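ok so i was messing around last nite and threw this chain in just to see what happens. nothing serious, just curious
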Amino acid sequence: MPLIVKICGLSTPATLDVALEAGADMVGFVFFPPSPRHLGLERARELGAQVRGRAGKVALTVDADDATLGNIVETLKPDLLQLHGKETVARIRDIKRTFGLPVMKAVGVETSADLAALPGTAAVADRILFDAHPPKDATRPGGLGVPFDWHLLENLALNIPFMLSGGLNAANVVEALRITRAGGVDISSGVERAPGIKDPDMIRAFIQAARTLPSPLPVNGERLPARRAGG
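result:
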């Protein structure tokens, strides 16, 4: 299966076009006000329409309630919901049942102990996104551009696909993939020249670097979720 490359935190028409033209398989939009990449619904509607089925649309939320998720789903019409908070197995199940969309659950990794709850999460999520734990004083979830020890994922056996995030860039993505054999990579701050400001050249360089890994690609590769009619 081909590697999935996701560019997350896109917020302008110009950088979204760069990601699409460079061959991103997924484009991510952030709905979390503390983030410098947060989108309002009207901007999300405009950017979602710009995708036009050229890539999978991913909505990133953090412990969002049903009303918030409903507004996002209606506006963006995402192909995938990315849950980046402390959502429980029961909450993931409820979200899938309510909105009828596949879900990717972010899992913070610092030590092997962080992988202990994976079987329960994998039983309800459609895929896992491994990221670094946020710093102790962080006001936002995720690794915030810091990598974790990728060797913790060596020989990982999951019954669903997984993607890798956290501290990736054009210089280290191939090494990260060789170690983890992840089926996809997800980058945001690693293609920014300032928080929330994407750099077109960095986007192109990252996608090109990720694509240098020879096919067939990792055992955890998979097909993209079916896209909605009308994009």
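not much to say yet. Helices lie at 13-22, 41-51, 66-76, 89-99, 118-122, 173-180, 200-210.
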